[in-house]
C-alpha cells in the first residue's frame, strides 16, 4: 500500500495485519542528483511507520510521483548520472532505514504531465525508453539484493511506451515486482466517460504486462481508495448509458494544462463543495461508479 503525505492515516492494526509492503510517498527524484545531498526528508519516518504494521512488513520510500519527471530524466541520461542517482538511493536507504524503494516515474518515454511542454515532448524523451532499465540496473547494483525495488507502471496502453516485450526482460532483471496502476484509466485526456479503475480495463492492463513477459507473481494490481470526477458535456445524455458519455474539454490542447473540469478526492476526505449532490446520486444509483450531471465517480 501507498501511505502518502496527503493522507497520512493508517487504519487500526487488525485492518493492516496482512499488508506486506508499504511505500511512503513521495520523495522528489531530483534530490538524488545532488552529490552533496545529506537530508532525506519525508512527511514521516520509517521508525514512526514501522510499528503500525505487522512485524516483517517491508517499508519502502516511493520516489517521484505524477509530475515529478525531470529528476529521473537527468538521472537516466549518462552512466555517470545513473551512478550518482543510484549511490544516493543507497545513502538514503542507509540513513532512513527503509527496506527499499518504489520507482514512480510517470512515465519514461513521455506522456507525463508535461508531455506538451517544449523539451518534454514524447519525441524528446524517446531515449528514456532504453535508459530506464539502465537506471534500474545501476540502482540494483548500488543497493544490492537484500533491498527491494518496485516500480509503479502505467495502466493505460497508450502510456506503456517503455514497457514492451523488448524492454521488460531488462526491467524485470532489476525489480522485485511491478505496481500496475490499474486506476486513472480514464483521465482528463479522454473525451468520453469510462471507468477510472474498471475491471475490464484493469484486466487489459494486466494482460499487456503478462504478454510483454512480466511473470504473474511479479505483477501487483493497483486498487484506488479515491474517487475521480469529471464534468460531462452540457448537451450529453448520460442517464441511459453513463459509459461513453461525452465530457467537456478537460485538458488544454496546446499546453496539456488541467482545465479544472476533472478531479479526485479520497474516501477519507469530505466530499468537495459542489459535488455533494452528484456524489449522493451516484452512490444511491449504483453504490459505486456512475456518471451523473456533474461528474464521474
UniProtKB/TrEMBL annotation:
Parts forming coiled coils: none
Domain GH18: 1-297
Cellular component GO terms, alphabetical: extracellular region
Signal peptide (UniProt feature, chain positions): none
Major enzyme class: hydrolase
Documented EC number(s): 3.2.1.14
Protein name as catalogued: chitinase
Organism listed in the record: Stemphylium lycopersici (Tomato gray leaf spot disease fungus)
